[in-house]
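In keeping with the milestone schedule agreed at the kick-off meeting, the structural modelling team has produced records for the first pair of proteins. Each record is given below as a sequence line and a structure-token line. The laboratory manager (R.T.) confirmed that both were archived under the project's standard naming scheme.
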Amino acid sequence: MENKELNQIKTILEDWIPKDASIAIAVKGRYIHYSPGIPNIHLSKGEPVKEGSIAEMTFKKNCKVDALVDDSVFGVSYYGIGYPIYLKDEPAVLVVILPPTYFVKSEPLLLLTGKHEETWCPVPLEHISHIESLQKKTWFYAANKTYSAIHTLKNLEARLPNSFLRIHRSYIVHIPFIQCITRDFSSGLVIKLKDGTELPVSQTYVNHVRKRLEF
């Protein structure tokens, strides 16, 4: 593709996408253009489209695709929107790459998609007992299964309904799953869930927890 054509596409996109977005264009399964932004997934001209990427999904479905992609594909999580296009009569894909936090601007969550073993599963919020940040990853628990998610707790807190309660820098608990609240040996609050899981309430969140649970 000539630079003139690329510049025309970039000029059009600048009117509606954030300035720090990355832009990728692929033709016949290989990238022909990449403008890095945030996040930078470090694509190279001529590089083949990877399985699991937005570009690959858009080529397969031949329709607009938007999804969150975890760090197993490019080493960094991102939110992408792919558009099927034609360039000089060849099937192509235009991908806009945005930080996962951009997804927060959409409607409140009704479910949370997580990875269990090697499968991504959408899980209704009412089945989730609690959410945890551990070793720089986010995990949530439902029906005796553990799922990893690409969101941070901060982002989730902004989108979850009021039935979810932040109790610690590392924990968000789903109130209907609380069995009781006790004290530990240092007089700190501990929340015990119906499955027996015990979660500490940090001093930062004690007043917030007391106010929300009215005790």
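The second protein of the pair:
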Amino acid sequence: MSTTQRFFNGAAGRSARRPVRVRRGLGTPGTRTGSGWRRRPTASSALAWLAVVVLAIAVAGVLAWWEQRPLEVPDGFSEDAVVAEMVRVVDGDTIVVSMEGEDERVRLLNIDTPETVHPTEPVECGGPEASAAISQLLSPGDVIVLEFDQQLRDRYDRLLAAVFVEDVFVNERMAREGWGEPAYYAPNDRFLAVVEQAWAQAREENAGVFSPQLVC
């Protein structure tokens, strides 16, 4: 036997004895790339993405409805009470609210705070402090409840109302902090007694305009 024949016979024998490598765990058929195997998209993956998209659309719809939902009067108020959204503070006893898409100026019933924006009168002592006090109670976007008395509007066409935010009666609180002096304009006296009591307490405790620290 020649040297060439012995070489080919030996090579053939080694090739026959070499184990065959088997690629395992490939699962579903794929496409061979230069760096390995790439799995083809499956139907379950497409369904999962579709579910995510549908859920996102549903959540967006719920949020849009929540933001535009009609405001409802909470329990514990009268049948005549209405809900509004706070827009801004004008001064210590006047605010602007949004009702059914329209802005309304509201004058708080049975209190009178020092003037800050009167067209013909100067800023009164305690006026800026009163405006700051009510701004601490009411912020733009707050949902508030308005309760009314016999006469709904004053000569300036402002709504006359008691204002509630969460569990705070704003008219009473302004009197209690010494900024809202009791005021009676017939025939509206529904909240007058509560305001008078709060004002008397403020006087006893030297709060607000009664404070010796208020220098004007």
